Amino acid sequence: xxxxxxxxxxxxxxxxxxxxxxxxxxxxxxxxxxxxxxxxxxxxxxxxxxxxxxxxxxxxxxxxxxxxxxxxxxxxxxxxxxxxxxxxxxxxxxxxxxxxxxxxxxxxxxxxxxxxxxxxxxxxxxxxxxxxxxxxxxxxxxxxxxxxxxxxxxxxxxxxxxxxxxxxxxxxxxxxxxxxxxxxxxxxxxxxxxxxxxxxxxxxxxxxxxxxxxxxxxxxxxx
Length: 223
Ligand SMILES: [Zn+2]
Known about the structure:
Layout: H1 13-28, E1 38-44, E2 50-54, E3 70-73, E4 78-80, H2 89-98, E5 104-108, H3 111-118, H4 128-133, E6 140-141, H5 149-159, E7 165-168, E8 172-177, H6 180-203
Parallel strand pairs: 6-7
Antiparallel strand pairs: 1-2, 1-5, 2-3, 3-4, 5-8, 7-8
Helix pairs in contact: 1-6, 2-5, 3-6
């Protein structure tokens, strides 16, 4: 489809392109394979109404275009778009409801997150990037099918208010951020951390970092 320029879309072309950029980046960074994963961004209309822009279901990232993104109301009603929204839309909406600070969600199915997930092991922060962006230990949801709102509510509840990600055992990771750029940084940082944590744990007891004990120097720029 093409965007009907006579009706102004709630989602700018720039935002649609940014979502597509991070979808493709997730494959390039080894966080997703094939059509796995999904991304959404919360938007606020001029009248204060909130909605979510989300990737379509079952479309290859290299075949996806900015016009394929769907705009969905917070109750799940599709406002714009011809394709079906990601099957995990109800889960994204539940997370947005639980965390007003979350402006973007990145779901990935990366390897080392899943290595620890299938073992039921939470992901402790052992790298600076992870502790800065994910802000603490990432909890693990026991395995279950992840496409309904009830799963989403419990996933959001388990994530809580203090950390920015949750692992779904035998499936992948959901990361949130105040922007799409930051939610993506969380997903990358957690995967890198999971890989190092896995390897380090085979040789000894890794030094785990605590976010509230990290002293960030005044004016320091984050990595
Ligand atoms: Zn998934």
